Q: What sequence folds into this?
């Protein structure tokens, strides 16, 4: 237990240092005295910042609701909330490309769910998250013109907006492919997918990983049998919880804008969050530390018109979407490896 605790604390230090380093850089580079003097702390500002906190709760309620539903009756609301916070904490201290949420298998198992079932449930949640992006991307594109969504590619920062657009489409293509693989493997043709994996495990180059590959094949078949037994009401519940969680995450930024830059386009702010989170899926830094702050300040800068204010919003956003989970995870960590109740 002590070893796991020390390891987690050590992993927390790197993203914390990265995030604080970029925060200090943004403050020194962009935030001037006149920017701070222009901020007003009135009831309007406080009210919308409080609304941002409500959306943070909405994000966690959605994920806890999903964990509670898919693991019923073995996961109480208390354990579902604890699992959600620990998954968020792990995502904050691991690179996005690694996928901290994959450790949901470990956390579900820690909460008393068998390892095989925990793997099944995690594959299901992974499919739901990917499906959310596949479904809503075309809708976002229909609502907001591409030129507005990806910024002005003709201005002095055209290289930045072009890069964001290129990364977005590359990552989204990967999401579509991965979602198709998951759909094929756990819903459409699980037996065929399992046979392919078993064949791959026999290749000479794959013998070292044969046990893991065959284990994955078995898990996919088990997941398929389990999800096919769920009714339409269950699917509406878990996908509804997924949508609630992601929409709440996006509306955190809307509330921050309403508090500090109230004249901005709420629809465009919301839709750009879709792009931000897709791009951050390939962040090589733990929890997107450093990259998130820089991306937000530059990507939303053209809507604000003030680099200093953009930096302020970036820091407030990261406090509510990132540091809050570092703090919550560190608070839970000391007692987490004791016997759960």
A:
């Amino acid at each position: 237990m002590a070893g796991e605790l020390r390891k987690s604390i050590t992993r927390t230090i790197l993203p914390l240092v990265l995030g604080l380093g970029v925060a200090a850089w943004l403050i020194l580079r962009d935030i001037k005295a006149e920017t701070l003097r222009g901020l007003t702390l009135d009831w309007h500002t406080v009210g919308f910042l409080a609304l941002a906190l409500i959306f943070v709760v909405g994000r966690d309620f959605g994920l806890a609701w999903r964990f509670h539903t898919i693991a019923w009756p073995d996961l109480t609301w208390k354990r579902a909330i604890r699992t959600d916070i620990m998954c968020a904490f792990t995502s904050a201290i691991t690179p996005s490309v690694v996928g901290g949420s994959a450790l949901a298998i470990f956390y579900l198992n820690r909460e008393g769910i068998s390892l095989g079932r925990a793997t099944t449930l995690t594959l299901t949640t992974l499919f739901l998250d990917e499906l959310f992006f596949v479904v809503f991307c075309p809708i976002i594109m229909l609502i907001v013109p591409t030129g507005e969504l990806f910024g002005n590619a003709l201005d002095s920062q055209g290289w930045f907006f072009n890069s964001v657009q290129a990364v977005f489409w590359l990552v989204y293509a990967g999401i579509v492919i991965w979602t198709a693989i998951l759909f094929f493997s756990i819903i459409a043709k699980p037996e065929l997918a399992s046979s392919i994996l078993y064949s791959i495990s026999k290749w000479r180059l794959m013998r070292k990983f044969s046990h893991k590959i065959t284990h994955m094949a078995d898990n996919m078949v088990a997941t398929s049998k389990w999800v096919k037994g769920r009714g339409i009401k269950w699917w509406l519940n878990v996908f509804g919880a997924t949508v609630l969680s992601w929409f709440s995450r996006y509306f955190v930024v809307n509330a921050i804008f309403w508090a500090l830059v109230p004249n901005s386009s709420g629809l465009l702010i919301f839709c750009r969050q879709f792009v931000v989170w897709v791009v951050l899926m390939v962040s090589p830094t733990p929890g997107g530390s450093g990259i998130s702050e820089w991306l937000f300040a530059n990507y939303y800068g053209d809507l604000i018109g003030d680099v200093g204010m953009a930096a302020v919003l970036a820091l407030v956003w990261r406090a509510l979407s990132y540091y809050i989970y570092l703090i919550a995870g560190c608070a839970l960590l000391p007692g987490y490896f004791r016997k759960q109740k």
